[in-house]
């Protein structure tokens, strides 16, 4: 009964896709059978059982966040560095842990607190790998149970695989430095080490890719394939 009430609530349903056209395009064929992600994952059953993420901390690495957004009201929010205001990070964090207060929508873990790290504190589109490394370690120290990464480079994992096959003496960090961005091998290694530290107590989640034309996942989502230390979580 309780699960059915949650399933029928407007706040639960407001997290559903609600686009008029296929792919949320500005025009085109009308969309049908839109995804109902919360229902498909049986979130209403979990919430009715009291699994709300209360007293848990979830880390989010993204372009930026509006920390004053209504979906974060009453939450403890930790942060690493400056946080530019951006819609994507706010959207993602709301789906993860938006508060359940009868207004708007709510997240998968509405009782959870949040840790925010910006991809680049200056608001630039390039990755500040040192800032993200520090944020990952900070969240791990605070006991975060998960870190979400809804970003990448649109570089296929197969590209790194081919590079390492052609350069067998190179480390994964050296390969990343070659095929993604020249931030310095030591900085890439520090980032991989930070992810390994985080996974000792939490799960690291990646978007597979933001480019549907790619034949293999984004190299960042495939990191555990290359750095086997990361296969645990």
Automatic annotation (TrEMBL):
Alphabetical list of PROSITE patterns matching this protein: SUBTILASE (PS51892), SUBTILASE_HIS (PS00137)
Stretch forming the signal peptide: none
InterPro entries named in the record: Peptidase_S8/S53_dom, Peptidase_S8/S53_dom_sf, Peptidase_S8/S53_subtilisin, Peptidase_S8_His-AS
Domain Peptidase S8/S53: 57-212
SUPFAM superfamilies for the chain: Subtilisin-like (SSF52743)
Pfam family, one: Peptidase_S8
UniProt record similarity statement: Belongs to the peptidase S8 family.
PANTHER family named in the record: CELL WALL-ASSOCIATED PROTEASE, SUBTILISIN-RELATED
Protein name: Peptidase S8/S53 domain-containing protein
Organism lineage string: Bacteria, Pseudomonadati, Pseudomonadota, Alphaproteobacteria, Hyphomicrobiales
């Amino acid at each position: 009964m309780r699960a059915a009430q949650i399933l029928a609530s407007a706040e639960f349903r407001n997290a559903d896709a609600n686009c008029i056209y296929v792919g949320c395009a500005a025009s085109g064929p009308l969309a049908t059978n839109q995804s109902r992600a919360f229902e498909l994952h049986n979130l209403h059953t979990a919430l009715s059982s009291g699994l709300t993420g209360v007293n848990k901390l979830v880390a989010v690495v993204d372009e930026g966040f509006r920390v004053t957004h209504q979906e974060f009201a009453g939450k403890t929010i930790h942060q690493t560095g400056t946080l530019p205001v951006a819609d994507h990070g706010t959207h993602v964090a709301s789906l993860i842990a938006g508060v359940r207060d009868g207004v708007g929508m709510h997240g998968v873990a509405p009782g959870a607190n949040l840790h925010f790290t910006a991809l680049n504190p200056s608001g630039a589109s390039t990755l500040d790998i040192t800032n993200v490394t520090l944020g990952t370690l900070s969240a791990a120290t605070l006991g975060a149970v998960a870190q979400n990464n809804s970003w990448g480079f649109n570089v296929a994992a197969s590209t790194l695989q081919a590079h390492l096959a052609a350069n067998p003496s190179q480390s994964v960090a050296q390969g990343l430095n070659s095929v993604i961005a020249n931030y310095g091998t030591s900085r890439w290694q520090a980032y991989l080490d930070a992810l390994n530290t985080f996974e000792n107590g939490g799960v690291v989640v990646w978007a597979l890719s933001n480019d549907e034309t790619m034949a293999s996942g984004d190299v960042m989502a495939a990191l555990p394939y290359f750095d086997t230390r990361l296969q645990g979580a």
